[in-house]
Amino acid sequence: MAIIREITTFSDPMLDVYARLTEGQLKNRAEPEKGLFIAESPNVIDRALDGGYEPVSLLMEGKHIEGQAKRIVERCGDIPLYTAPLDVLTQLTGFPLTRGVLCAMRRKPLRSVEDTVRGAARIAVLEDVQNPTNVGAIFRSAAALGMDAVLLTPQCSDPLYRRAVRVSMGTVFQIPWTRMDAPAGEGCRDALHALGFQTVALALTDESLPIDAPELMQADRLALILGTEGDGLRSETITASDFTAKIPMSHGVDSLNVAAASAVAFWQLGRH
User: Fold this and answer.
1) Which residues contact 94 (CB under 8 A, 6 or more apart)?
2) What mean pLDDT value characterizes the chain?
3) No. of H helices and E strands in the chain?
4) What's the pTM?
5) Most exposed residue of 21, 71, 92, 164, measured as fewest CB within 10 angstroms of its CB?
6) SS3 helix, strand, coil % of the chain, rounded to 5?
7) Spatial separation of the C-alpha atoms in residues 193 and 123, rounded to whole Å
8) DSSP per residue over 198-258, as a string?
9) Cα–Cα–Cα angle for 57, 60, 62, rounded to 5 degrees
10) pLDDT tens for residues 103-146?
11) Each residue's pLDDT tens digit, 216-248
């Protein structure tokens, strides 16, 4: 049974993990094994629990304990459950968007690349995508549209940042993912080749195939590489890839936002 603790002021130290620690402090780069993240809303917290993430504490209005958060409280067991009046909670950035429930959860060690893609036929590789909103949206599309796993280069935003988790609707807990050691150039291509994947860079070049090209549709194992919001993929990544592909455009539009482009590409090339 959860240990209920009442909070009366926004300055209460018990709110630090929810209100004052930065994403970097929560991640705890010095001691990753102690890292935390925040999950919001009962449905998202449910998905995190289903994914094996360990809850550390809960924060909610008292009325939710026997209401919309009842099943979460029961699932989380003997952990601190902080409650506060709505006027205190609304001082937390974004709290009105959380459906009244926050959960601090412990991070898990990152998987190896080999373990993450084992048995996968279609994977997404994100190169330096730094906007958490885009990362969350890409994960949601990846889970919905037939991607089996997601790999991230070192400069990508963290999928467990609060905004990314929220935008993904908790799908970051459902689809396997991990970080690679290097940007998605020759080293990435060679590593993916060793695992049986062909690589396709989503890029606008003269040699780019249409996204529905038979060479792509018929590939047994395919890694789709998407680039950062501003500059797209690195030139060395494009050169190193087995294929480049583009989404046909109309009305003089040259490209889509990376999150929108990912949804189109995943729909076309994902496993259905």
Assistant:
1) 40, 162, 166
2) 88
3) 12, 12
4) 0.90
5) 71
6) 35, 20, 45
7) 13
8) EEEEE---TTPEETT-HHHHT-SSEEEEE-BTTTBS-HHHHHHSSEEEE----TT-----H
9) 120
10) 999 999 999 999 999 999 999 999 999 999 999 999 999 999 99
11) 999 999 999 999 877 788 889 999 999 999 988
Which pair of tokens denotes residue 177?
A: 């993912």
Residue type, 73: V
Distances (CA, A) of 86 to 7, 59, 64, 196: 11, 11, 12, 53
The CA distance from 175 to 186, in Å, is 26
**Quick check: helix, strand or coil at residue 38?**
strand
Q: How far apart are CA 92 and CA 43, in angstroms?
A: 20
Q: Are 120 and 146 in contact (CB under 8 A)?
A: no
Single-letter residue type at 89? L
User: Coil, strand, or helix at residue 151?
Assistant: strand
Sign of the CA dihedral with 48 first, then 221, 128, and 184 last = positive
* Residue 13 DSSP one-character state: G
